[in-house]
Amino acid sequence: MVDPDQRLNAPVKSAAQRALDKLGLRRPIDLALHLPMRYEDETRLTAIGALRDGMTAQVEGVVTDSEVQIRGRRQLVVRMHDGSDDVVLRFLHFYPSHQKALAPAKRVRVRGEARGGFFGLEMVHPSFRGVDEGAPLPTSLTPVYPTSAQLPQAYLRKAVAAGLARADLSELLPPQAVPDGLMSLRDALNFLHHPPAGAGLSAIEDRSHPAWQRLKFEELLAQQLSQLQAKRERERQRAPRFALVAGGLQEKLLAALPFALTGAQRRVVEEIARDLQREVPMHRLLQGDVGSGKTVVAALAATIAINAGWQCALMAPTEILAEQHLRKLVGWLAPLGLTVAWLTGSRKGKAREKMLVQVASGEAMLVVGTHAVIQDQVQFAKLGLAIIDEQHRFGVQQRLALREKLARAAIEPHTLMMSATPIPRTLAMTLFADLDVSTIDELPPGRTPVVTKLFSDAKRDAVVARIRDAVAQGQQVYWVCPLIEESETLDLQNATATHEHLTAALPGHSVGLLHGRMRAADKAGVMVEFTAGRMNVLVATTVIEVGVDVPNASLMVIEHAERFGLSQLHQLRGRVGRGAVASVCVLLYGTPLSDTGKARLKAMLASADGFEIARRDLEIRGPGEFLGARQSGAPLLRFADLVLDEALVHQARAAATLLLERYPQVALDHVTRWLGGRSDYLKA
Ligand code: ADP
Ligand code: MG
Questions:
Q1: Predicted model pTM
Q2: C-alpha 293 to ligand 1 mean position (Å)
Q3: Using CB atoms within 10 A of its CB, is residue 411 exposed (0-12), middle (13-18) or buried (19+)?
């Protein structure tokens, strides 16, 4: 039942207010920060006689004639005159109010695009306003705001102007925190909402104007502050300390490995070990190019936790990837007497029950799997370390679930994230500013660089001939088929057709097929054949992307390479060049190529360095790839551009550190002003 008093008290919102809410425009400051996407120049009048076809202009004159005509459809046709010439205004939709305002002898100001019509120049659906003779022109450009269908521009303009007048725009920042040459926030906002007549629009539009610089700086500062604060909050939490003991599991594993760690691996293991010996929860990203050997680093971290009596969970975004980890880790750790549990969505029934019991009792010291590892039914006896591979490929929901699961533990576990997609430096400094980063910048020895070649799809036969040669010499080949957007069926047809074609073209050789629709056991079966060298060619959809490690595979063909993202291409290419044989990666492309497609393929030819490729990717497609779904819902950076505004990122970083140290209240006020209640999303 509705309580009548409550109903009376509930604020009744108009449709326009609800539309404002939807755009996130609630507080005066939100409105003040809602900036125009472009401007209309109503500060000048053009003589009707000077209008030309295609020109957008404002004219003023007196209506000489107004009539409703029926030419196929009803329309209002108005003729006006300003002493220099006549122009026709045509309205295909109109109300009686239009007719009234545009009646003969009325003086009107009209803005629209002039078009050459049958009866001379005309404007179709111009905007117009009745004025008195000699009414002054506005002195500033008229803002046009991003809006929604429910929110008329005129209403929004008024709301923004009111917000701008009411918002507290007082200077919060001490002068030494603001880079030289920037405007004050108040001046910057007043300027950008209402640039004076004659203001240079190009500096406004390309956002290089000092007013824009100030806004970008403020935004980056808010973001730096909230990240640094999150980091400090975490530093107040308690995590278990793992002592490093001589002769412990970690040393045993090191001694048993068939290879010596690279210098870079030794360094990152030390960085991680140092974190694990502290009471502060580790929050570290381990980045290293494909094939740089992150798994063994994860295993060493796990042994440190396990040796101290704590459990470790290792999660990967796909079952194939998780299984690769499982195989490696069991191979390394089972001989040391450790029980490894395996948890994925497809694991059901008795086997699953048994695993859950082992995890809950603490018998399983290491738990490997997909996000099934963080489901509610999984209770750890004593989770001390969570390792997340390719964490940016997990969805936001899964990441939040993980955070929650970890937060529910009495003691916060350490977390280690791993990624083969290196985060460009500006991103590392901004969106990931709360992470510590370790980088493996060296590949294990004995790898030969991959030669990359481009072929148009028309040269397919030549490529197949090349495969025949390679197979004849005992080499193994990957043929990767692209994901066809939104159609797994087409995807499969394509892969199946390629598989048949290659089988026919390579008599006497074994050609396998691997795709996402296969059952996990069948996929594993194919992988075993290929890994053991009994299969010569593996045709696969992108399921092999993160999966396999077969040193004898030295030729990779990527079909329709232009459809892949740059970092995905780089990861795929990383599957070859793992042995001593010189490897080749052939990028087959369909024509015509889009500009983006061209740029990506060029970048692949130009560089084999994951960092350089990640930087190019950021330029070509923006930060989405690195953020995954993190960006969904909330706009991350509305004003600043991480590629163009790198200098401001550095300045904001320095200012954030200064504020947190010397002006903590200012830091808080600034974050509140900019992020209001929205800072939560930064934590996902
Ligand atoms: P990624 O960083 O892409 O996850 P992996 O951990 O799968 O790379 O390692 C790639 C391959 O290199 C594996 O076969 C791994 O056993 C091997 N490897 C790792 N470290 C070394 C090393 N220091 N020397 C030789 N081989 C290594
Ligand atoms: Mg890996």
A1: 0.69
A2: 3
A3: middle
